[in-house]
Amino acid sequence: MGTFLRNRSYHSKSKDAPYHLMLGNKPDLHRTKRFGSLAYVHNWLGPSLKKLDDNCGIGFLVGYLEDQAGYQTYFITEHAVQHCLNASINEDIVYKDRYADGYEENVSKWLTTANHAEDADGEEQEASHAAASLPSEAVEEDDDVKLPDFEELKEMEPAADSQEADELEEPTGHHCSRR
């Protein structure tokens, strides 16, 4: 694999790639993937795998074999390198991105950013409209809205209109009514 990549890479002495100098056309590198990229390896369904079992394993691309098609993939959960034929490679996510120092901090930042980014019909926007209708001296940026605890939510009774309550009652004298 090293020779394959070296012959298709730019050399400063020749001011070109050896492949281009020998054959006259540009090398095709569309199958060459970034090392360390996230790999989703397909698991075939068979006698040992059932319909709802995991259909892929997640690993990282560590290389190629010279005489075989496919990828060498490192599986973190198994701490093993395996040769895999059917894999989808995501070159945007690399091993060092996931397992570098501070990854958990970055994920928590991403999640808090995602929580505040609501679409146009989200609750965040409705709260801002309600705050806009209050007088400016009543609205402070540092005010935190107190949400009810889980225990309080369990104790609360659902609000039902009188029409909805009538519809929810079981009909009497109906052949499907429970007794």
Q: Briefly, what CATH class of the domain at 33-105?
A: Mainly Beta
Share of residues in strands:
15-25%
Q: Tell me the strand order in the biggest sheet.
A: 4-3-2-1-5
User: What is the global morphology?
Assistant: extended
Enter the CATH topology name of the domain at 33-105.
SH3 type barrels
- Tell me the distance between the termini: 77 Å
Rg on CA atoms, Å: 30 Å
Task: Detail the poorly predicted runs.
Answer: 124-142, 164-179
Q: Helical residue percent? A: 25-40%
- By DSSP, the count of extended strands is 5
Per DSSP, the total helix count is 7
The average pLDDT value, as a whole number, equals 66
| CATH architectural label of the domain at 33-105 | Roll
Order of helices and strands: HHEEEEEHHHHH
Given helix and strand content, the structural type is alpha+beta
| Biggest β-sheet description | 5 strands, antiparallel
Summarize the structure.
This protein is of the alpha+beta class and 179 residues long.
Question: What does this entry look like structurally?
Answer:
The structure is a single chain. With 179 residues, this protein is an alpha+beta fold. Among the domains are: 1-32, no CATH class; 33-105, SH3 type barrels (Roll). 31% of the residues lie in helices and 18% in strands. The chain contains seven helices and five strands, in the order H-H-E-E-E-E-E-H-H-H-H-H. It has helices spanning 2-7, 18-23, 95-99, 103-116, 123-133, 150-155, 162-168, and strands at 37-42, 56-63, 71-75, 80-84, 87-94. It has a five-stranded antiparallel beta sheet. Mean pLDDT is 66; it is low at 124-142 and 164-179.
